[in-house]
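User: Run a structure prediction on this.
Assistant: Running it now.
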Amino acid sequence: MTGWQRVLVQGIGGCLLTLLLETAGMGVVVAAPAEARVPVRPQDEGAGAPAAGEEETEPGQDGSDSVADPTRREPPGDGTKPGFGKPLPPGSPPPHATPPDAAPAAALEAPDAVPATPDGAPVFVDRAAATGLDFVHFNGMSGRRYISEVTGSGAALFDYDGDGDLDAFLVQGDRLSPAERYEDATPPPPAGDRPPRDRLFKNLLVERGELAFTDVTEAAGFAASGYGMGVAVGDVDGDGDPDLYVSGLGDNRLWINRGDGTFTDATDAAGANDPRWSTSATFFDADLDGDLDLWVDNYLAWTADGAEDCASVSGHPDYCGPLSYPPVADRLLLNRGDGTFANASTSSGIRFSFGAGLGVLAVDLLGDPRPEVYVGNDASANQLWTPPGDRDGEGSGGTTTWSDVALETGCALNRDGRPEGSMGVDAGDYDGDGDLDLFLSHVHRETNTLYDNDGSGHFTDVTLRAGLAAPSLGMTGFGAGFLDYDNDGWLDLLVVDGTVNVIPALAAAGDPYPLHQTDLLLRNLGGDGGGPVRFADVTASAGPALAVSRVSRGAAFGDVDNDGDVDVLVNDSAAPARLLLNQVGNRSHWLGLRLLAADGHDDPDARVTVETAAGRRLLRRVRVDGSYLSANDPRILVGLGPETEVRAAHVRWADGTEETFPLTGQPVDRYLTLTRGTAPSPPSPAAASDSSSSTDPTP
C-alpha cells in the first residue's frame, strides 16, 4: 500500500519523535529498542548535572546545556554554495533546492531499492582465516560490565618493510584489573598467549604472488603488553620507514621502525607516553617544520577500582556510558627533530578543553591550508582545532594557542543542536564539489551524521537529505570510512557496528556478549538524477560477509591485494579479525596514486584532484588516520568507472604548495608514485598534446 504513516520512535535523550514515513509498495519498519538503557548515574542517553566529584563541563559538552549553532543552514538551489558563490566544478552533481523547513519525513524516506552490484555478486568476502590472518581480540570481559569492555581496539594497514604490499597490525586488549584471572574471562585468551599482545602480520603477496600473511610479531621485536586501544602510523624520524604509535588504557607506546624488519620501543626516550586512557591518535605536521607531530585523543578518567555500577530501565546490569565519568583532555606532542617530543598541550590551550575523544582527523577542512584537527567526542560537542593564525592567514602573531572553531563552523553538534556519541570519523568529497565533507558514526537512537562543507569551511548537517538517517537509527557505528567500493567515482560509506548496551533479546538467549549487530554498506547514488546526492542502504544485497553479526570496532581501509579496489581489515571485539576483500571494484577502471614528500615519506594531508578526459574532477586525500582507532593505507585510489584516460593529477601538498602532473597518454588501472618537486613545468598550449607525466609506476 502507498500512504503516510505516523510513527512514534524513541529519539535522542529519550524523547519521543513523531516521524511521518511514506510507504511506497514496501513495508517500512521503525524498530525502537525493547528497553531504554538508563544508568544509576547520568550517562550518554540523558544528561544532567555532573555527579559529585566530577568536573564541570562547558555548555554543549555534556548535552545538559547544548547551544545551537546559528551558522548551520541549508544550501540554496541557485547553482552556488553559501559563503562561496562559485559554480560547481565539472563532474559535480547538479544543484538542488531543499527548503530549509522541509518535512523530515521526505528526507527519511529510503531511496528506491537498489542492489549493491548489478549482477548480485558479493561486494566483500572474508579471507582472514584463508590468508593466515589468525588473530582473536580479547576484551577482558569478566562479568563486571566495565565500560572499557565495549570500546574495542583498532588496526593498521601499512607497508612496514617497504616491499610494496600492505602489512597488518592488530591491537590487542588485556585483563582490566590485576585481580582478574585470565581463565575466568569470557572467553579466556589461549593459554599460550597470556598476557595477550598486539600482532604484526607480514603480507607475502609480493614474494609469493598470492595473498598470504605470516605472524612476525616476535621477530619484529614487539614484546610489550597492556590494554591496547588505537594505532597511528607515521615516519617520525624521517628515515622513510613508517613508525607506529599504539595508544592504550594506561601507557602508550612509540615503536620506531629500524628499517631491517624490527622495531624499537622509543616511548620513554622520546617523551611520547600518556598514561591516561588514550584512544585514537594521528601524526601530522602541526607547525610546518617538516617533522611529524602527534595528536593523542584521550577518553575518560576511568579505572577498574573506581568503576560505577549502571543498569537498564528494567533494573538489569548494563554498561555505563561516557557521562558516568569525567572526560580527559587530549595531548599535543611537537616533534623536536632529534627523536624527542615536547608536550605542547598547555601552551596550545588544548589541555583546558575536555571531551571524551574517540575519533580524530588531521586534515585541512578550512582551506588555509594548514591542517586542523577534528575530534569526534562521545556524548559531548565535537571539536575542530585550528593552529595559531590558521583562520586569518596572517601568521600566529607570536601566540601558540589553538582555537576550537567547531561550533562556529557548524560541525560541533547535529542539526538539532545536540551533541552525539561520536566514534568513527572520516573526511571525503562525497558530492564531487571539490571540498572535503565530514562523516561520523554514532550510537543507536541517534543517527550517523554527514556534514556538508559549503566550500568555505562551514558545515551543514545533511544526514536526512542524504538518506542516511533511517538506516543508522537502530545501529551503533564504530569503524567508518568513505570508500568507492565499485570504483564508479562516487564515494560510498561503510560502517561496522556493535552496540554499547545490552540487547535484551540476545541476553535472554544466553549470549555472553549481547551487543552484536551487522554492518552497514551505503551506496552513493551520485547526482545524475538532478537532485541531492543520496545514499542507499545496500547491505542486504552485498553478500554474506556483511551479514555476520559482531561487536565490530576498529576498521582500517586499504588495497590489501593490490588489485585496485578498497579492502577492509576489521578488529571485532572478543572475536576473530575479519579481512573483507573487495570482489567488484576492479571491474571498473581506476588509478592508484602514492603522494611522497621530497624526502620520500608519505605526505599526510596531501590531496589530489584527478581530472579525467570526460571533464570530471575527483578530489581524494591521503588518509592515514580517521575511522576508529585505526590507520589506513596511505595510497589513494580513484575510481574512474568506464573512463580509460586521465588528463592530469593536480596535487596540493600538506603545506599548500601545488603541482600538476600531466597524465595524458598514461595507462590507468595501475599505481603511480608522484613525488613532490618532480612535476614538469606547465606545458605550452602547443606542447600540451605531447606532455607526459614525471611519475614512477608503483606496484
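The chain has a mean pLDDT of 84.
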